[in-house]
Amino acid sequence: MEGPVDLRIQPYVPARLFTVDEADALVPRLAEILDRMDPKLVRLKELEDLLEDAESYWGSKGDTMPPEEREAHDRLIGERDETRALLDEDIHEITATGCELKDVHSGLVDFPANVEDTLAYLCWQRGERKVSNWHTLEGGFAGRRPLRKGPEAER
């Protein structure tokens, strides 16, 4: 028999820490992936709205749905699931780099880093030319602060 399970909360340890230069180097790739995701996100929303409308009209189980409506409904479900899978692939491509996608719609990405001798996040949002802000692990987007410039910025 094994011993008791350790229920203490383990500290957050990211897979890797980024420098500002490493994060900046990923910005074009991240922007490309996020741009590629936009039409998929729009289509996913359309499909979910169509399915919600059909289920609202016919009932959540669709028991009274005529066969031709059922076929169309099933095609929409298939397309929705395929679109979600493609979005999941894009999200995985982003997270495989070691950064964290915080908001797919606004294109908010955090990079674990050591900032001012503290484990924190470098913070980038689509539309910004480079990474120029950071926040504490708990601070989130609202707690963003500008990065200091110069050799003391990355210790």
In summary, what is this structure?
This protein has 155 residues and is α+β, with helices and mostly antiparallel strands. Helix content is 44%, strand content 17%. It has one domain (20-153).
Word description of this protein:
This protein is α+β, with helices and mostly antiparallel strands. It has one domain. It has helices at residues 20-58, 67-95; strands at residues 100-103, 108-115, 118-125, 133-136, 145-146. Helix 1 (20-58) packs antiparallel against helix 2. The protein is elongated, with a radius of gyration of 21 Å. Residues 151-155 have low confidence and may be disordered.
Residue ranges: pLDDT <50 for 5 or more in a row?
A: 151-155
Q: Count of helical segments? A: 2
**Classification by helices and strands:** alpha+beta
Largest sheet geometry: 5 strands, antiparallel
The amount of beta strand, in percent, is 15-25%
How many beta-strand segments?
5
> Cα-atom Rg, whole angstroms?
21 Å
Shape: elongated
**Strand arrangement in the largest pleated sheet:** 1-2-3-4-5
* Mean pLDDT level: 88
* N-to-C span: 46 Å
How many structurally independent domains?
Answer: 1
- List the secondary-structure elements in sequence, H or E: HHEEEEE
Helix content: 40-55%
